[in-house]
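In the previous chapter we treated chains in isolation. Here, by contrast, the input contains two separate entities that must be folded as one system, with a combined length of 662 residues.
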Amino acid sequence: MSARTLFDKVWASHEVVPESADAPAVLYVDLHLIHEVTSPQAFAVLRASGLKVRRVDRTLATMDHSTPTRTAQIFGDVPIALDDAAKQVRQLEDNTRAFGVELFGLRDPRRGIVHVIGPEQGYTRPGMTIVCGDSHTSTHGAFGSLAFGIGSTEVGHVLATQCLLQRKPKAFAVNVSGRLPAGVTAKDMILAIIGKIGVSGGTGHVLEYRGSGIEALSMEERMTVCNMSIEAGARAGMIAPDEVTFAYLAERPRMPTGRPWDEALAGWRALASEPGAVFDRSVDFDATRLEPMITYGTNPGMVLPIGASIPASGGDPVTERALAYMGLRGGESLLGKRIDVVFIGSCTNGRLEDLEAAARVLKGRRVAAGVQMLVVPGSQQIKREAEQSGIADVFKEAGADWRESGCSMCLGMNGDTVASGAYAVSTSNRNFEGRQGVGARTLLASPYTAAACAVTGRISDPRELL
Amino acid sequence: MEPLKKIVSKTVVMASTNIDTDQIIPARFLTVTTRTGLGKALFADLRYAPDGTPNMNFVLNRPEAAGSTILVAGHNFGCGSSREHAPWALVDHGLRAVVSTAIADIFTNNALKNGLLPVIVDSVTHRWLIEHPDAEVTIDLQSTLLTLPDGRSIRFPIEPFARHCLLNGIDELGYLLGKLAQIEQYESARGWREHA
């Protein structure tokens, strides 16, 4: 048999029925994560057809997208401000109760963003297939699982059968060599990768990030990289599990111990792509040459090193429209531009290391006058850890708004939005028109860069404050 | 689902590349618990002024666009989120096909499950379609041909099983439920191992 990739192995071990010319593969799903926004219509299909959730033991629900982040709305008596959001939350409670699905409810200490809690609570494991009605499901690929986003109809398919109909995507190797310089993060790495291969460069492919530059990353950094695979159009992103992965997993709840752990470990060690495995495409990066990156346009591929000039539109109507939306001109530098909002959080950069990075910049400093800074931990556990370690105090003393966990201002569904025309430096994943609010202007960056911008009130190179 | 065999319509053109799902339907409209009635939220930030009145410069608001069921869109249509609300909104508005040089993976899957046909064409055909809005076009799913007004026909790729389901109005869930015996067999053969 020819040498196989990590992706080949995970795919092959989950084929219930292999694909043929006439029909896609029936692919088994090990873990199905659900949330309040993309599941109601799927439960409605089950009800209409008299079907059950086939494997409640492989299904986990949380609420994150439309949930409030204000403490009084979760733990106090203040109702959820948006009626529709409140209804969605209640419906998930009703559906999970009726179908017997485990739910991390609004006040559950394990609740958080679906792609943060899966790994944190030990549900995400190497070699699994993981799906969720959310495109950033690719995050879980950091553990060597095949994890991808699906629509609500497919959520219904998985609830009813634990399977999906899928054609096998192609394999795309993203080779990264060398260590990131000081002040440059995994977020900068993935933004640079998207900038190079483009927002549709990964369409039809599963990316495998590999090489010394990836091996040097922590699990949280690897999750940041895999998280944004979808922003390159890829179906999923994966990283082979290694000792860093196993050390992270060993500390998680629900992990087996003793002999079952040893057996699991032996299986996980055998997952990595074999020498000589062939990828359909590949691209090479040198991590040592990367700089802090920031977006200037209206998709994540419109990105540049923070000190570089915005490219001239050259008459391209799409670039012209993006620059007009952003209120920017080709040829100018972003450095020194005034900003209005800073958002630290999301499934991309809402984990503890991200908050620690932002706090490193903010410690002993203040958020600039006129700037609103929102810090939203990725989970309630991260919130507690940050409060215990004193990081939360750094944010509060700097004048930032410290909130309960959720997706929050990444997509503004819960009412945490950016005003029209305002500039937001955000650690989230999408700078699409209107993403953070109608007319909002989003600049994607790392937690270091976002925190530096909060302190100066302007687009700033974080390396000057570290 | 209604069978989908042939679409004959004038086109509506949105030439921008990378039209993402947040533009197709902004997140604030996702707080619904049903899949119906989302057409009014389609392209909401482009279609309406802040006061809610229609923006008459937007292509779908032009009188010529009325009744068109084919959207010709720029490269990489539907990128971004997995929200099936995007095809739900397009279909509720009356659209039955999106033609582009590239359409995002998750959007393609979602569209096929809702009777919205994703049609990929070469860049020359695409350019012609972009430059000729309101062109009368035929998309035949049986022959997988897109035919331009001058009679030129272009074959488009489509996943064979999805095509079969669309042509016959078959719901894929029924097919998957028919595989339950094999699914159970797979589960018992694999035991409870959580790894490959």
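The two ends of chain A are 51 Å apart (CA to CA). The mean pLDDT of chain A is 97. Compare these points with the single-chain example from earlier in the chapter.
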